[in-house]
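Weekly structure sync - notes
Attendees: PM, LS, DV (DV joined late)
Agenda: review two folding runs queued last week.

Item 1: First target. Sequence and C-alpha cells pasted below for the record.
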Amino acid sequence: MSLFEELKRRNVFRVAIAYAVVSWLLLQVMSTVVPILDLPEWVAKLTLVVLALGFIPALIFAWAFELTPEGVKKESEVDRAQSILPQTGRKLDRIIIAFLVLALGYFVWDKFADKAEKGSEPFSAGPGPSIRSGSASEKGSDPFSDPIKSIAVLPFVNMSSDPEQEYFSDGLAEELLNRLAQNNNLRVAARTSAFQFKGKNLDVAEIGRQLKVENVLEGSVRKSGNRLRITAQLINVKDGFHLWSETYERQMDDIFAIQDEISGAISTALELELGTTAPLAATPPTQNLEAYNLYLRGRYLLATRGGANMLQADELFERAVALDPEFSAAWSAMAFNSAVMWGYVYEPSAEVVFAKAVRAARRAIELDPENAEAYIALGRAQLWYFHDWQEGQAAANRAYELAPNNAEVVNIYGDILIMLGDFESAERIERKAALLDPLSATDANDLAVILLILNRADEALEPARTAMDLAPDSYYRVDPSIYSLLLTGKSKEARALIETTVARFKLNEQDPVAAAYWWSMYFYLTNDRQGLRAYLNERLGTGQSAASGSNADTAANSLPASYIGFCILWLDGAEAALPWLQKARASGEWLLLWPDYFYLPERMSTDPVWLEFWNQPEYQELFDIRRSHPYDHVSYWKEQPLP
C-alpha cells in the first residue's frame, strides 16, 4: 500500500482538515472575546501559536494511534481485521461537515448579511454636507444633500491607576475624532455630544439614537510610566456587531504611530464595510512628548470651559510652544482658547486676549497653512473685537473650507455669518452644526436665534425648548425661549418663564444683568413703554435721567451701555441714547454690532443724530457687507421707535 493510501486509511487527512477548521473557528471566537474581556493582546497571539504548534503532533498522533472500543492503542497493536478506522473516518467526516457549515455560516453573516442591512439604517439622521467652498456668499445649496456614513468617538476609559491621566485618555479620543473628521465622506459626532456619555453605561444602540450615528468607536487606555496599552473597537449600533477591534501595547514614544494605525484601521474598516475612503496618515504634530502632554492637558481644560480652566489652559499651551516653537496645533489651541475666553473671564482685558488670539493664530498658520482651528480663531478675533471685516471674513471662509465637518469650526462660522448678515447661509450652517453636535445646547440655542432673526419665531420655539432641555441647570439657554414666546404672542407664558427662572436661580442676587435683559425685553416686545421705564429706573437707576448721563456709570456696571442705549432710543429717541452709544463704543462693546439688536441703523431710526453716530469707518464696512444680502425678511427687533 502506498504512503498516500496509508495516510488516507489512518484518517490523517481527515484529522488535518478537522484541526484546521476547528482552529479557524476558535481564532474567530478569540478575536471577538479578547477585546470584550479586555484581555492582553498576547492571549490571542498565544492561542494562534499553540494551535500552530499542535498541528504536527495531531497528525503524528493520527498516524501512530487508533481509537478503539477499548481506548487509544498504538496502530501497530491493532489487528486490521478488527480495526474501526472506517467508522472513525465517517465520524470525522460528520464533524468536518458540521464545522464547515458553521464556518460558512459565520463567513456569510460576517461579510454579507450586515452589509445588506445598511441601506435601512435608521440612524442616518440627515443627508451629508455638500458645502465645500465655505464662502459666506454661498447660496442655494443644501449642506446635507448627500447621505454619508456617520460615527461617534466616545471618550476612552482611563484604566490607569492615576486618575490624573484622564486628560490623556480623553485627549487620545479627541485626536482620533479630529482625524476622522477630516474625511469628508464621514460625519463625525462632535466632542461636545459624544463626551456626554462619559462614565454612563448605556447601550450602543441608545447612544447611536441620541447622536444620530451608525457606528461608535470606544476604547480604553492604560498608561504606566512610558508604557501604553490601548484597546479600541468599532461597533455597528444597529446590531452591536464589532466591525473592527485591536489592542496596542507600545511605548509612549509610539503614540502618534498608534493614532495613525487606529484611525487608518477604522477608516479601512469603514471603507470595506461602509464604502468610505481611508485618509492618508497624519504628520505627527510634534516630536516633543512633553510638549504633547502639555497640549493634551490644555485641550482637556479648554473643552470643559470656565474662566479658571481656560486661564490654566493658556499657561499649558504657552509651556508647550516654549518646548516646541514649531508646534502648530498648540499655537492654534492657544489662539482658539483666547478667541473664546472673553465672557468666561474679564481679566486680562478683551484687547489683550483677542490680540493674543491673532498673534497665536498667525503663528499657527505660518507653521501649517491648513490649520483650520487657527483660521477660525483669527476670524473670530478680527470680527468680534478688531472689526477687520475683510481679514476676518476671509479667515472664517478658509476655516470652513478646510474643516467643513469640524463642529467647533461650523458653530463659530455660523455665528460669523450672522454677524455679517448672511442669514440664509447662517441658517444652513447652524442646522449643520446641530446635526454634527445633536446634544449641544449651544447649537440648539444658536439655531433658535437665527430663526428669530429671520422672523420665524414659531419655528424657533422647538430648538429653543431643546436648548433648555439639553441644559436644564443653565439659565443661559432660556433667552431664545423667552423671545420666541413673546414674538408669537405668548406673553403670559414668557412672563411665567422669566419669573420661574429668576426665582429658581436667584438671579436678582446672583446675576441681575440676566434678569434685567429678560424684563426689559418683555416690556419692549409687549410695547409697554411705561413698564420699561419704571423697570429701568427701579433696577438700574436709569430711564428718563439717562439722557443727561447722570447715572451712566452705575447703570453700565449692571447692563452693557449698548443695551441701555437701544432701550433709551425706543423710550426717548436718538439724542437721549447717544451718550450710552458713545460709552459702548469707547469700551469696545461687540453688542453694538450684533444683529440680535439691529441689522442696519436706518431700520432702527432715521434721526440724523442716530445715523451720524454710525457713520464711522469701522461700522460702515460691515453695513456695506450686510446691505449686499437681502434683508426684507429680517425683523427681530422693532426697528422704528414708536412715537
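Item 2: Second target, run right after the first with the same settings.
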Amino acid sequence: MDYVSVGTSFFQRIWSVTGNLTGEVSSCVLCYTEANKGVSVQIVRHPGATSGDGRISDMAKLPIGIQSFENIRHDGYLYVDKTMYIQKLLEDGKVYFLSRPRRFGKSLLLSTMEAYFRGQKELFQGLSIEKSENQKPEEERWISYPVMTFSLSGGDYQSPMGLEDTLASCLENFENRYFAKGEKAYGKTLPVRFGNLIEMLYLKSGHQVVVLVDEYDKPLLENLSVNTQQEERNRSLFKSFFSVLKDKDQYLKFVFITGVTKFSKVSIFSDLNQLRDISLSEEYAGICGITEEELTRTCFEETEKLAGKTGWSHDECRDRLREMYNGYRFSSGERKVYNPFSLLNAFADGRFGSYWFSTGTPTFLIQKLQASRFRPVDFAGGVRATEHALENYRADIPDPVPLFYQTGYLTITGYDARFRQYILAFPNREVRDGFVESIYPYYFNQSESYGAFETDRFIYDLDHGDVDGFMTRLQSLLASVNYPEGTAPYSEHDFQSSLFIIFSMLGQVVRTEVHTAIGRIDCEIEDGNLVYLFEFKVDKSADEALAQIDERKYAQRFRASGKTVYKIGAAFSMADRNLSGWNTEKE
C-alpha cells in the first residue's frame, strides 16, 4: 500500500462528503489498492477540539511530559485513543495490576481512568468509550464515582517518614476534595484512616469508590541495594496500608495499580481479592505504548514532517522509527509497541535521538548484572525466563533478567510453548546502544567521553579496511578491562562481552554467535560494502581460529553480495588477559 500526503486544500474539495465528521482534521491518507483499482480516503484526526464549522486545524501539539488527560484533551494535544481498554477492564474484572517500564504512559492511563470514573463526559467526545457508554441505560451513563488516586512518583522515600508523609498527604487531599472543611476521616494509624475514608466516601456519594495507585514501587526501587532497612520499612507500611482494600471490597468499584516491577514479597498482591495481573496478557499488550496501527492512524502527518526534515521518504522514515523505538512486546503474542516518550521526542526534534536514556541507567541495575552470571552479550543473543520469574521480582535472587525486563532494557522476542519460557533481548537500537554506553565506564577504566573519542578512531579503521590498526587499538582497549580482584576471564564468552560493548559503541551492525548451516561464528560486523568475520580462540593460535572460518565456510553467504569480506582469526591469552595475535585474509 502506498501513502500520499495531501494538503488542507484537498479537504475543501471533499468537505461536502465528510462534513458530518466532528473533530479537527489535520491530514488524510489516500490508499490505492490494486484489487479495486481505486483510491480510498482515510481521514486522520487528532481528537480533542471539535470543529462543527468545518475548520481545518494545524498539526496537533505533541504531549511530551504531559500526563494529565484533561490537559491533553482541553489544550488540543495529540492523543492516541486507549479508552477501549478501560471498557474491557470493567467487563473483565475489578482489581488489576499492570507492570510497564518507565515513560510508557502509565500515569496518563490512570489520569484517563480518573477522568472517566469522575464522569467527565466532555473529555471523551469522539473516543471509543463514548460509544459504549452511550449504549448503556440513561441512568448508568457517565456516573461520577469517588476517586482516590495515589501518585507515588514524588516524595523523599529514603527518609524514615517519607512514604508515610506522602500517603498522609494523599488522604488529606481526598478529604479536602470530597468533604466540607473540618470533616475528616479519623484514625490512630494511616491504614485505619484510609479504611474509614473509603466508607465515608461510599456513604456520602452513594457510589462505590475507585482506587488508583500510580508507581507503587517507587518507594521500594529508590532504596533497592542502597538502604535495605528503609526499603523494608516502606514495604511494611505498604502491607498494612493497602491490605485495607481487602476488607473494604464491598465499597470498591475498581482498583488499578501500576508500577515498573512487581515485588513478590509485597503483600499488596497476595492480600487483594481476585487481583488480576495483566502485565503479560495478550489482550492488554497494547494498553500502553503506540502500536504500528496507531502510528499510521494517528501520527501520519508527524511522520511526514520528520521524513521531510531528515530527507528520507515516508517508508524509509517508518523503517528507521521501527528500528530505533519499536520492538517492545509484553506477551507471548506478536503485538509490538513503540516507546511513546522516545517517539514523540523524535517527532518534536526532527531527528532520531536517544531519549529514553537521558536520565541514565540506574546504578543498581549495573551492579545486579555484574554480580550475576550474565554478560551484556547474552542480552543481544537472547536469554530465557519463565512467566513466574518475569511476574515476581525478588531482590535476593541474583538473576537480573526479570528486573531488566520489567524496567524495559529487555523485551519479549519469542515464546517456547514446550518449556513455557519467554525469550528476551534488547527491544530496539535505542535501548541497545544506550545500555552499552551506560555500562562502558564500568567495564573499562575510561570515561564515556573518552569512549566516544576512541569510537571515532575505530570507525575510521573499519571504514578503510585497516584490520591491523583496528586490532591494535582493540588490544589497547582490552588492556583497560575491569576484572574483579583475584579473578581472570575463563572463556571466550568473557572476551565476547567486552568486544560486544566495543562494537556496539561503534554503531555498526554487530551480531554475535551467528548461526550458519554448519557452525556458529563468534562475531560479524557489516559496515557498508565491508564485512568483518571474527573467530576467537582462547590459549590457541590465531591460525586455528582463521582455519575454522574457512573450514566452516562462514564467508560463503556473502560471496554473491559483491561485498569485501575480511576474515580475522584472533587468539587470546588467559595469562595476559588480552589479544596475543591475529591473522587476516581478504576475499
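Discussion on item 2: The two ends are 40 Å apart (CA to CA).
Action: LS to circulate a short write-up before next sync.
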